Amino acid sequence: MKDRGMSTLSPSLPGGTWTLGDLTVTRFGYGAMQLAGPGVMGPPADRDGALAVLRAAVELGITHIDTAAAYGPDVTNELIRQALHPYPRSLRIATKVGAVRDEHGGWPPARRPEELRHAVHENLRTLGLEVLDLVNLRLGDAQGPRPGSLAEPFEALVELQRQGLIRHLGVSNATPEQVAEARSIAPIVCVQNLYNLAHRGDDELIDELAREGVAYVPFFPLGGFTPLQSSALSAVAERLGATPMSVALAWLLHRSPNILLIPGTSSVAHLRENVAGAGLRLSQEDLAELDKIGR
Question: For this structure, is 71 an active site residue?
Answer without folding.
Answer: yes
